[in-house]
């Protein structure tokens, strides 16, 4: 089945799908670091995931990552970065019509 999928889709589509999955995996690793209290490592992994999402134009993934990153910066009392990322996440979520993330990003902005 995987072989059929690979040969039936253009290579850029396959590459973008793989990159999207890689970004999700990096975010999952970042979440694990967050849960273990290692905020600098969590920031690193979420940041790397966000770079990939930006590269492939995964706006929904970007909106989620921006909220996660904003919350991590807030935990570090880095208010300016938390605000910047929260605003960016909110705008992107509104553009996408992504109600759950509109709520998440608004919640972040209320805490800032």
Major sheet size, sense and barrel closure: none
The total tally of domains equals 1
CATH class: Mainly Alpha
Q: What is the CA-based Rg, rounded? A: 15 Å
CATH topology: Serine Threonine Protein Phosphatase 5, Tetratricopeptide repeat
Number of helices: 6
Q: What is the 3D shape?
A: globular
Q: Can you name the CATH architecture?
A: Alpha Horseshoe
| Element-by-element helix/strand order | HHHHHH
The low-pLDDT segments are none
- Class from secondary-structure proportions: mainly alpha
Assembly type: single chain
The name of the CATH superfamily reads Tetratricopeptide repeat domain
Please state the average pLDDT score. 93
Helix content: over 70%
Strand residues, percent: under 5%
Distance between the termini: 48 Å
Q: Please tally the β strands and state the result.
A: 0
